[in-house]
Amino acid sequence: MSSRRHIATRRGSPDAVRAPEHNAVGRGWKLCLFLGALCAFPQTAWAQLQYTNSTDGAVNESVTPCTNPLVRNFAVSQIYTVADVNIGVLMAHTYRGDVRFYLQSPAGTRVQLINNIGTTRNNVNVLFDDAASNPISSHTSNNDSATAGTTVPPYQRTFRPFQALSAFNGQEAAGTWRLEVCDSLNADSGTFYQSDLFLTAAPASIGVTKISSVISDGISGTNPKAIPGAVVHYCITISNAGPGTAAAIAATDAIPANMTYVAGSMMSGSNCGSAATAEDDNAIGADETDPIGASFSAGTVAVSRASLLSASSFALVFSATVN
Ligand SMILES: [Ca+2]
Ligand SMILES: [Ca+2]
Ligand SMILES: [Ca+2]
Ligand SMILES: [Ca+2]
Fold first, then answer.
1. For the chain, what is the mean pLDDT?
2. What separation in Å is there between the alpha carbon of 189 and the centre of ligand 1?
3. Is the pLDDT at 27 greater than 60, yes or no?
4. Distance 183 CA to ligand 1 centre (A)
5. How close is the Cα of 230 to the center of ligand 3, in Å?
6. From the CA of 303, how far away is ligand 3's center (Å)?
7. Domains in the chain, number
8. In angstroms, rounded to a whole number, what is the distance separating the alpha carbons of residues 76 and 307?
9. What is the rounded (10 degree) CA torsion for 179, 156, 164, 169?
């Protein structure tokens, strides 16, 4: 197949009307993007997601010393980039000065939330938030409310944690987030009741471009035209400008009536020039998620990818002939 590129038509997204048409073939094409599915999660807003663990557990220096803490996990299955983290903890304890909490991200980053604060004061009913007015070190004069019947959120008080939760910002959310609760001093004990992890998802910003070029017409070797029988090469590039990771990307492109898709012509890659990974025409098998999937059915090319990091892109190329 010739690599000569006669005319390159760059087309806008998603309605393909920003750039003028430069050849007759391009005019017949529409880039049809189902935007609702193009970036299914997260959407364009800064969304806050809540994960709750309410499995009660005893906390004391015998059962949960800081060498063997009580562990409460939060399973995050969605794919997105973390922009902000808050966490609330509800527990009863007869001597808050015994207590330490740590939060660990799927990437292994650890942040200590409380470090033996409050001496003889009772219980913890606190939302930890970097944006709070006061640090947790100032929580020394009040007993918090915490019984098996206490409803949270909202949490009774809000403090900045012992270490900043911003250490997690920019990390990927998916995986297991781990809260550790421990008792570091003899005497006095308590019960963990509930924790709520609040993760703010950074949105993704998806862009699409489509390029076409007539690569052969069976007559002219140097200046092929879009005449019947001519082969036209197409490339769809999907990019994510961020700031967050995009998930569940799916785009479709309908082949117009005056064109015929060339069976088995799809290839994927990081850009139009390097797209060399064969994509079969069906929509089944491991090749659909490795990580780029593509298929042709009922006159429509479909391309998909489970996730796309910020500031990255991928491409699908294919061919069609003029009827
Ligand atoms: Ca104790
Ligand atoms: Ca396929
Ligand atoms: Ca396949
Ligand atoms: Ca593939």
1. 87
2. 5
3. no
4. 5
5. 27
6. 12
7. 2
8. 15
9. 70
